[in-house]
Structure formats: C-alpha cells, structure tokens
Design a protein that fits this description.
The complex is a heterodimer of chains A (110) and B (120).
Chain A (H helix, E strand, L loop, with lengths): L8 E5 L4 E6 L7 E8 L6 E6 L4 E2 L4 E4 L5 E6 L8 E9 L11 E6 L1
Parallel strand pairs in A: 1-9
Antiparallel strand pairs in A: 2-7, 3-4, 3-8, 5-6, 6-7, 8-9
Chain B lengths: L3 E4 L2 E4 L5 E7 L4 E9 L6 E7 L5 E2 L8 E7 L2 E6 L8 E9 L10 E3 L3 E5 L1
The chains are: A mainly beta (110), B mainly beta (120).
Chain lengths: 110, 120
C-alpha cells in the first residue's frame, strides 16, 4: 500500500474550518484514501473515504486532487471535541488491514 | 455505523499472569479481526490478523506464543497476553472488518474502544 505524508501537528480556532493535508504521491489507481481519527485513549474512529471524487458526510469533506497525489480533509466548523490525531491511509479495495502512519495531531483552540 | 465492543477497558495485573482481552462485533459478522498495540505518543502498530476458524497471522516481530489469538466465532476474537511483563504494558485495540460490501465499494474497519494494560 502507498505511503502517506502528513504534518505532525496543526492548530485551528474553534468554529473555523480545519483543513488537514495528506500527500500520497505513490497512490495507485485502485487505492482508496481513508481518514480516521483517534481521540486520546480511545480507538480510532472512521471519518470518510474516497477514490477520486470529492466526498462529504455528516462529519467532514474529503477533497482529492485530480492527479490523486494529495487530499485534504475538511472539518467545516471545528469544535473542541475535534481535538485528536488524524490519520490519512491509502488502501486497496478489498484489503482489510490498515497500516497507520504518525498522523496529524490537531488541536482546536477556544 | 457498526459497533465493536472491547473488554475490559483497562486491566492491572501482576507480572507473570495472563490477561485475556475480548473483542466482539455487536451487529455484524466479522470474518476478520485485527489486533493493534499502541505505546504512549506513538501510532498504532498492527500485531496480528485474526480469521474466524483458522490460525491468526502475526506481523513480523510479534511472538505468537506470547500473544495468543482465538477467533472462534464470527462475532468474537480474543487476545491473551501470556506471562505478562511490565514491557507488555500498552494500549491494545481491536478492529473488525465488515463483510465485503456491494461491488465497487471498499470495506472499512470499525474499532473497539481499546484496553489499557498495566503490568506491575
């Protein structure tokens, strides 16, 4: 599976949009982009995933560049409860095990 | 979304004892479950893949005799840390894979809430 690169940490003000980047320049055509987050001392929580089209759900939006070499997770109105480590993972369809990188530690400030 | 229940949420044990951690899929059948461990301020590290009715597949460097995995049913996998030592103290997390979705859809994993193991 392709490797991803994320900034180690980011800060965002409460109520503002949080934009978390991820580079996956070696992604192959059948690999999906997944985002999970882990709040302190809890198991990871699924956020969203996509192949090439932009995706939106009740938690976030996922913007994937046309060449699919990078993506951005957008939390439209960040709250203090969004403080967590966010993991960007690429995975082939049907593959089941997730390999976690170091992720981005997002801190939402009041 | 699907629910994965993990018990206990925390356990303290004496060195040399064995500890069993349970992972249950509550509203779906999980043909495959995964066990991770996580040390403070580090990322999750995959330990093993547990397939219902067959032997688990361990990642390189993980001792199969130390971390016993049993996946006897489609809703339950257990991890037993045998003869635990202080260096086994860690956060253990399980996850379960929902059975393959409709054609063209990728699967996603659901995670338990984790078990904090402290070995004295």
């Amino acid at each position: 599976d392709a490797k991803t690169t994320q900034p180690p940490s980011m800060d965002c003000a409460e109520g503002r949009a949080a934009n978390l980047p991820c580079n996956h320049s070696t992604i192959s055509g059948n690999e999906y982009v997944y985002w999970y987050r882990q709040i302190h001392s809890q198991g990871p929580q699924y956020i969203i995933h996509g192949l090439k089209n932009n995706e939106t759900n009740e938690m976030a939006s996922l913007i994937i560049t046309e060449d699919r070499k990078s993506s951005t997770l957008i939390l439209p109105h960040a709250t203090l409860r969004d403080t967590a480590v966010y993991y960007c993972i690429v995975m082939t369809q049907g593959a089941q095990k997730l390999v976690f990188g170091q992720g981005t530690r997002l801190t939402i400030n009041p | 979304g699907a629910v994965v229940s993990q018990h206990p949420s925390w356990v303290i044990c004496k060195s040399g004892t064995s500890v069993k951690i349970e992972c249950r899929s509550l509203d779906f059948q999980a043909t495959t479950m995964f066990w991770y461990r996580q040390f403070p301020k580090q990322s999750l590290m995959l330990m093993a893949t547990s397939n219902e009715g067959s032997k688990a597949t361990y990642e390189q460097g993980v001792e199969k005799d130390k971390f016993l995995i049993n996946h006897a049913s489609l809703t339950l996998s257990t991890l037993t840390v045998t003869s635990a030592h202080p260096e086994d103290s860690s956060f253990y997390i399980c996850s379960a894979s929902v059975a393959r979705l409709a054609q063209g859809r990728s699967e996603k994993l659901f995670f338990g809430s984790g078990t904090q193991l402290s070995v004295l």
